[in-house]
Design goal:
One of its GO terms (cellular component) is extracellular region. By secondary structure, this protein is mostly beta strands. The protein has 1 helix and 14 strands; from the N terminus they run αββββββββββββββ.
Amino acid sequence: MTGDEPRTPGVTRKTLLRAAMAVPAAPLLFAAVPALARTPSGQPLAATPESCDDDDLTPPQMEGPYFKPGSPQRTTMLDGSGTRLTLTGYVVGLACQPIAGALLDFWQADNAGAYDNVGTRFRGHQFSDAQGRFTLTTIVPGLYPGRTRHIHVKVQAPGRPILTTQLYFPNEPRNSTDSLYDPALLMTVQQVGSARQATFDFVLNVPGTPPSPSPTATASPSPTPPGGGTWQPYVSYAAGARVTYGGVGYACQIAHTSLPGWEPPNTPALWRRL
């Protein structure tokens, strides 16, 4: 699908897989039919994109000049006036499997089209939940010369490379004149009262097994042993904290709680090598 045409959800492989991912986590589930994930208004999340093979990978885009490391961990960026926007979606791999603990670092312009390059207004990071879901509450960003309306984001699955990209709004007049605009990065947006709700799923180049509509019990993962240093999983690290791993020193760039797979060499968005 190209251009600004709205996506029409259907009963597709991706829709069924999203239904499987919407089942609450539990050791054993014997439910018959899972419910589709829903937006804050109760509407089913749209199937975006329709499939999860390597042709549907979320395309990268330039970082731009306004990225700053060290954003606060939060899911709400209501740092000024503007039209409220709630963005929901999933982070999934090549088999449509949900990716838990994926880092999503967002930044955008304010209602007037200006970036906060001194503080952290309209900047924030979060991690996808056990079903790969995320929710961001912010405002519709303003316009500035040369660009259409957009939101910047970095997405990183644990132990995988960082995807840097941008998300776009449908039916924006400047979409046709912005040389960076890519219709593959269009969010599905609807007006709900005075606010807007959007959906977008990130498909990362992470191999895996498709989720099953009838989940079976799985063993809990064992913590990854530290690589001969002070880094440990399940520890809350503040920005600026220093650890060692594999004989190398690292400084924490973003406050977070560590998980297995997030060892410093695997997460350059979180740890800077000293």
